[in-house]
Amino acid sequence: MTFSAPAAPTVHVASEVFPFSRTGGLADVLGALPAAQAAAGDAVMVVSPWYQDLADAGRVQQLGALAVDGVSEVRLGHERRGGVDYLFLGMEVFERSGLYHPDDVQRFSAFGRAVLPALHHLDIRPRVLHGHDWQAGLAVAHAHLSGLPTVCTVHNLQYQGRWNIHEAAGWTGLPDWAFQPDFAEFHGDLNLLKAGLVFADRVTTVSPTYAQEITTPQYGEGLEGVLQRLTAEGRLRGILNGLDLDRWNPRRDPYVMNYSGLRGKSSNRRRLRQEFGFDRAPVLGTVSRLADQKGMDLLLMALPQLVKNWNVVILGGGDPLLEAAFQGWNLHPRVAFVSGLNEALAHRIYAGADAFAMPSRFEPCGLSQMIALRYGTLPVVRETGGLKDTVSPSVGFTFGPATSQALLDACGEALAARRDKADWERRVREGMSLNFSWDASAQAYRDLYAEVLAGR
Length: 456
Hints:
GO biological process, one term: glycogen biosynthetic process
Protein name: Glycogen synthase
Pathway: Glycan biosynthesis; glycogen biosynthesis
InterPro entries: Glyco_trans_1, GS/SS, Starch_synth_cat_dom
Helix content: 25-40%
CATH architecture of the largest domain: 3-Layer(aba) Sandwich
GO molecular function: alpha-1,4-glucan glucosyltransferase (ADP-glucose donor) activity; alpha-1,4-glucan glucosyltransferase (UDP-glucose donor) activity
């Protein structure tokens, strides 16, 4: 198989992309947005690391190698599927198991330096370079400095790629003037996300509400001043993520008893109850990282009261203290905690639970609430970020304060609604009818690219 360079593609740069590499929602976005743009007729490429785990799968066509200043040899791999070209950059820093490690600032500095040389080596001339999160921040900076139109998307502002600037400056290949507060310096550190933000022509977040929230001290993670300036300049906006409707489709989902309405939903509920030995009380599910951001400690504190009226099934991993605490609840007949990632079980929870808990302290967008709605499982969510943008109180159940009592109150509202069969079924039908496809989001990004190009 030979490689033919796409003409003037939109080039997405990201640390993970489904189905090749994945730890969370970033990979899902990179698996869906480029495909939606390609389906609309665009030339689209995704550039991502050639991780050892991906390389071992033997799925990628090798395209040779090149030398990059300040970086070890860069091997190039390619695959094309669904109308999208995927370019993988293999380097010594990625020759270990797993995606992320303590020295990631150095690893993704090498990756960011290699993106443009790799594209030039293959005679690929991007129409726009679109970087995602801090791991792509340096690629955005170098692209801007080389004259390319650029977009930088923040999927989670909490993670910024910081390192002592005196040690890290030499990793970046940036000019000396870039290491000052107006550019890549942040309180004595190199900040790769800040580099992407300040150099990008446009900055986006993955929901409109999150774009507003991050300009405040409560959510700005120390970068609210930069983001306020971007807002004033018209360079910051929120574009809501979509959902991969082929992957998340209860009518064709290979992991569940397929259904399109309330009757099929009840069959999956019965199966989930049987799987965990639950009684006939309603089932509250969650699929989540166990992290402070996700408010899983609030769910833990609420459990003693929740189990009086709910069966609760939790799938996730992360904070070892939270994991141990949830594990201890497995002795309770109305609680099931399963540690780690389990794709099949996640689908069964979405299909079989009555309600779905997301008590996030902040949520840039969130996909789980969209999946839950599509599967007829009503979300119980905190009013923040993308949760506020996607869950109407007329369909799901929302609360404001980040407290266990507020979560309990919202679950109480859900319980009351479930006792009213007509109200519950109306909510379920309305939720299942919502359209979260990537089409509108993909078009919004295409319009944004056109705006950037017109400005040049």
